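Quick one, probably user error.
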C-alpha cells in the first residue's frame, strides 16, 4: 500500500483554489493558499517518487525539503514516445522546465522556483504556519506551480522508474 496519495495532493490544490477564488484580502487566506499549494507539491512529488521505486523511509528522510525532492525526481525516468512512436526512457528532470508566469509578467520555471524557495522565502512549513508575517512568492505563482507539478505527476503516473545507480 502506498504511503503518499497523488489524489490527496489534488484535493489540497482544489482547496487552495477555493480559498484563492474566495479572495486574498487577508494574510491568513494568502498563507493558507501558499501552505496548501506547497504541501500539494510535497505530496505529489513523494507519491510519484514512491511509485518510481523510492522507499517511504527514503522519502521521509527528505522531510519537507522541496528542493531535495526535486533533485530526487531527477533520478527517475519516464517512458516517452520520441519520433515515430519509438518509446524511450528519458529523465524525469524535464518536469523542472515547465514555465510559470508571475503576476508582473515575468517567467520562471518550476525548477528555479523550487531551488530558490529556501533562499528567498519563509521556510516551508514552519515559518508559514507560525508568526505574524512571512515572505513568499505570490499565492497565484505557488498555486500554479503546485498544479503543474501535480498534473505532470498524474500524466506520467503509469510509467515512472527509478534510475539505476541512485546513491
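Nope, works fine. Designed sequence:
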Amino acid at each position: 500500500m502506498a504511503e503518499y496519495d497523488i489524489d490527496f495532493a489534488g484535493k489540497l490544490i482544489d482547496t487552495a483554489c477555493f480559498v484563492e477564488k474566495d479572495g486574498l484580502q487577508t494574510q491568513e487566506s494568502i498563507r493558507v493558499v501558499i501552505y496548501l499549494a506547497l504541501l500539494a507539491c510535497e505530496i505529489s512529488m513523494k507519491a510519484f517518487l514512491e511509485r518510481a521505486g523510492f522507499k517511504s523511509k527514503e522519502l521521509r528522510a527528505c522531510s519537507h525539503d522541496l528542493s531535495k525532492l526535486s533533485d530526487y525526481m531527477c533520478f527517475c525516468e519516464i517512458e516517452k514516445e520520441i519520433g515515430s512512436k519509438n518509446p524511450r526512457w528519458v529523465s524525469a528532470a524535464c518536469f523542472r522546465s515547465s514555465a510559470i508566469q508571475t503576476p508582473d509578467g515575468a517567467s520562471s520555471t518550476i525548477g528555479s522556483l523550487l531551488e530558490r524557495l529556501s533562499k528567498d522565502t519563509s521556510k516551508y512549513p514552519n515559518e508559514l504556519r507560525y508568526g505574524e508575517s512571512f515572505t513568499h512568492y505570490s499565492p497565484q505563482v505557488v498555486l500554479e506551480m503546485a498544479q503543474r507539478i501535480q498534473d505532470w505527476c498524474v500524466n506520467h503516473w503509469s510509467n515512472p522508474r527509478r534510475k539505476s545507480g541512485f546513491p
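Residues 114 and 163 are 22 Å apart (CA to CA).
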